[in-house]
Design brief:
Blueprint (H helix, E strand, L loop, with lengths): L2 E7 L1 H46 L1 E2 L14 E9 L3 E4 L4 E4 L2 E21 L5 E14 L26 E4 L4 E2 L2 E2 L2 H4 L5 E3 L6 H19 L18 E4 L2 E4 L11 E8 L2 E10 L2 E3 L1 E2 L5 E2 L1 E4 L4 H41 L4 H34 L1 H19 L2 H18 L1
Helix pairs in contact: 1-4, 1-5, 4-5, 5-6, 6-7
Length: 421
């Protein structure tokens, strides 16, 4: 059943909050403007770096054999990434000869969800009605139920064991006759499940600890019918494939159950772009100071990798442009929101004014963002930026200030002059 909480904010408090919002709005507006400017510069620097890197990059045709002539060169090479390192998860004793052993933990918990509706009242106050609902879901972290709004759900969460996610990476990964550096190693994603084979001694200890935690929280002894026993006779620990499950029955999870899964990153064919550094690699440093190296799974050509990097740079640039513009608009609304708040004594009037303020802030925020982006382009790309501004100015003159008619007049005048001659 949903839990509802109603909060009323007085007119005076709303005006006070709006006054504080002016300062926040200015900070947001200035910060978003700086973000937009920085984004354009970063985009250009990244594009320049990628262009410089692509021009400098050469193919390493045989990474299986060291080539002294490639020392200090930015290379593109494809080979098997392999290792002989043995990695062991000390807490569980799970090990493998692999590039990485990764532990993932999930907790079955009550999760709080909320939905809020607001209504302006005559006199300027505001009524806020928040509806809270609760569902059992798997979560990456334990959830503190003591902070839940509904008293009936406070203290409802527990965990049968506390385990953290953990990744272990090999230090020695061969790439032909060379070794991959740490950054390149951690870009690998060729994962496979680890078939678990835990010792009876460890499972017995886990089962005992989990039983104590369960009975302490639920304050009842376990009935045989409540649990699903494993082949080894454990009630609270279930091992299947790459998963360790803490709980009575994996098919019917209860609050507090925990599941831990293990995967390994196995040797695989990869393609790298990096600078040769002795028997290993390091990031390429461009003239503008930006660094670059990458690893992709499988065999890829140099052009494919750089095309993908340029597309990624463009995507990130546009995402930040959109976020920056929305922040500029939000900042302007924070600055001028006081006007709408002052009129909240008459809700329908404030709604009309608020709509108008929102529209103006949106238009002004959009124009401001475009101007900042355009000026940034002039600063970082003078020729292209100025050309774009000239074209934009010409279009504004043609369509907004009668330039179109003037062009027609000039065209007609030129036609008349030959006729008179």
């Amino acid at each position: 059943m949903a839990y509802t909480k109603t909060t009323t904010t007085s007119y005076g408090t709303r005006v006070k909050n709006s006054c504080m919002g002016i300062g926040v709005g200015f900070v947001l507006f200035i910060g978003a403007t700086v973000l937009l400017w920085w984004n354009e510069g970063n985009s250009v620097r990244t594009a320049d770096m990628l262009e410089e890197a692509q021009e400098a990059c050469v193919e390493m045709e045989k990474p299986e054999k060291k080539d002294a002539s490639l020392e200090g060169e930015l290379v593109c090479a494809t080979a098997m990434a392999t290792t002989t390192d043995s990695l062991v998860d000390k807490e569980f004793g799970v090990g493998a000869t692999a590039i990485a052993v990764q532990r993932k933990v999930e907790y079955y918990q009550w999760i709080e969800h909320s939905e809020t509706k607001t209504e302006d009242k005559f006199g300027g106050s505001q009524e806020e009605v928040t509806t809270y609902t609760y569902k059992k879901e798997w979560s990456d972290d334990p959830v503190d139920s003591e902070s839940f709004e509904d008293p009936a759900y406070q203290g409802k969460n527990m965990v049968l064991t506390n385990v953290e996610d953990e990744d272990q990476w090999a230090e020695n990964v061969s790439f032909g006759a060379y070794k991959l550096n740490e950054d390149l190693i951690k870009r690998m994603s060729s994962t496979e499940e680890i078939e678990l084979a835990l010792s009876d001694e460890l499972l017995s200890q886990f089962d005992k600890n989990t039983k104590e935690a369960y009975e302490r929280f639920y304050e009842k002894k376990t009935e045989a019918s409540d649990s699903v026993q494993t082949d080894s006779g454990y009630q609270y620990i279930h091992v299947k494939g790459n998963e360790i499950y803490y709980g009575l029955n994996p098919a019917v999870p209860q609050v507090g159950d925990v599941r831990v899964t293990f995967v390994k990153v196995v040797p695989a064919k990869v393609t790298i772009i990096s600078e040769v550094d002795g028997d290993s690699f390091k990031a390429f440093k461009a003239k503008n100071g930006k660094r670059f190296q990458t690893l992709v799974m499988g065999k890829k050509s140099m052009d494919e990798i750089f095309d993908a990097e340029n597309s990624n740079n463009t995507l990130i640039t546009w995402l930040i442009r959109i976020v920056g513009t929305l922040l500029v608009i939000g900042g302007l609304k924070g600055i001028f929101g006081i006007i709408e708040t002052l009129l909240k004594v008459v809700p329908f009037l404030s709604n009309i004014v608020g709509w108008g303020i929102g529209l103006v802030c949106t238009v002004v925020g959009l124009v401001w963002s475009l101007v900042v982006i355009a000026i940034a382009w002039v600063f970082y790309r003078p020729i292209l930026g100025i050309t774009l501004l000239v074209i934009a100015g010409l279009l504004i003159w043609i369509f907004a200030f009668g330039g179109k008619n003037k062009i027609k007049q000039l065209a007609n005048k030129q036609k008349e002059e030959p006729a008179q001659a």
